[in-house]
Amino acid sequence: MTRTEAGTGTGKRVSEARERLLRTAGQLFYTEGIHTVGVDRLVAESKVTNATFYRHFRSKEDLAVAYIASVDHAVRAQIGSLSAADLPAEGILRGIGASLVEQIGSPGYRGCAFLHAAAEFPDPGHPVHRAVVAHREWFLRTITGLFAEITVAQAEHAGRHFVMLRDGAMSAGYLGDPVLAGETLLRGIEGLLRIHTARGLDEDAASGSHRAPAPAATVSGIECSPSGS
Predict the structure, then answer these.
(1) 83 and 217 in contact (C-beta within 8 Å)?
(2) In this structure, how many other beta carbons lie within 10 angstroms of the beta carbon of residue 32?
(3) Which DSSP letter does residue 176 get?
(4) Contact 34, 72 (CB under 8 A)
(5) Residues 159/144, Cβ–Cβ less than 8 Å
(6) Per-residue pLDDT reduced to its tens digit, 27-62
(7) Full-prediction pTM beyond 0.85?
(8) Closest CA to 82 of 69, 70, 98, 93
(9) What are the pLDDT digits (tens) for 56-104?
(10) Are 151 and 203 in contact (CB under 8 A)?
């Protein structure tokens, strides 16, 4: 049940206030860092009261966990939309890569929100750090599963390689030339797909089956940064 503001009788005001807090936190945490932004500023820029803030979040760190969760949810939903489109694994992997390139070249890009948060909270037991690790474990499982659809042989290696390419490109795109970072990422993904698909074709030939070449796919918004940043 949605909690309500005293005297309002509905949950609408509280829900809107929570969303403003989360949206404001996402923008400020991503651009300036979680530790840098205080509760007073979050309250002021969200146009809520201190009481409203603490009604929804026990602390700023609790809000930071919610911020990471919101970015995680967006990534899951966006990759899920590719899967729902009934694209082959190769198309989904290329689509994720193309979207990352688009993000790296977008205005206001400052790198990966998950990597930034982990750097700010290095303690493995901290809730923010755990939230980052949970996302990365899910992402690695998802990518590995896609490679396993092409061929099981060395799918785990390919998944780890893809994630490392992604991490490197997102950092290089912020610290260096975003165009070169994006091109390098796409070349790396194509290399992985070429090697892994060849293994799958060898397996098909051995078993007497055949597969059609996968079409390329693109998708917008596979982001490791908050929406609207």
Answers:
(1) no
(2) 12
(3) S
(4) no
(5) yes
(6) 999 999 999 999 999 999 999 999 999 999 999 999
(7) no
(8) 93
(9) 999 999 999 999 999 999 999 989 988 888 889 999 999 999 999 999 9
(10) yes
